[in-house]
Predict the 3D structure of the following.
Amino acid sequence: MSRTLLVAAAQLGPIQRSESRRATVDRLVELLREGASRRAELVVFPEAALTPFFPHWLIEDPAELDSYFEESMPNAGVRPLFDEAAALGVGFCLGYGELTRQPDGVVRRFNTSILVERDGRTVGHYRKIHLPGHTEVQPGHPYQNLEKRYFEVGDLGFGVWDAFGGRVGMCICNDRRWPETYRVMALKGVELVLLGYNTPALIPEMPGTERLADFHNRLCMQAGAYQNGTWVVGVAKAGVEAGVAQIGGTCVIAPSGELVAQAATDDDEVVTARVDLDACRVYKETLFNFAAHRRPEHYTLITDPVS
Ligand code: CDV
């Protein structure tokens, strides 16, 4: 039986601070419908797809900070997306800020994505592990990156789920730059990695690298795909958002490492690709046959604690 899946990468243009949650969810529903009209079975949205990327500025009022997070999922605000997806029989991957309240009142915040099957069941839940940026405001920077202030390191590991007829994993933005992300998922048999990102073209600590931002985006995802024999779907929130220019480059990458589909704009745009999950096998069973060729006894330095 063929294991092919039509996947839609639903790139978002900027979400401005003045835009209501309702208007944003309407945009997601529109992209979902566009994907469904092209017969997509899975629609992948970016990191923090319900809000502007709020780590880009300092928020001191706790109530205002909480307004960028979801305390439950689905909730009334995103219900239209869940309802439309279930009605169309389309699954999706959605990034958002997750807030949990412990029984003792302690609040925890994560940069999260979920995987929803075509029948509306939430089958996967991931909390971002590699958090870039800073805890404190960086004076003189043209914008902030306060991910380390607003989020905790994810505590769910790099999960892989049986879904959409294959083994599906999720990671978020900065995770895609780390080879360990893909490798841990590949050791769990991943065939399709879904990831969203908010990537500024200019990283203040890295002056002079702007011209390489798109290249580095593709480089890490294409390497992750090839070296692990997996499909990768990378989805941007692109364009100038709250004064920060973010790259686009939403794409679908085959296990060969080749780009098979790519966005042409920095705005709301759906990119579709037919994903043959069995195309992973030639890599997983030969060059990257982990059981036959990996030498973990020589990799122990990688797992030593951070010094
Ligand atoms: N949202 C992110 O994780 N962005 C980082 C930027 C800050 C470098 C990224 O790796 O794209």
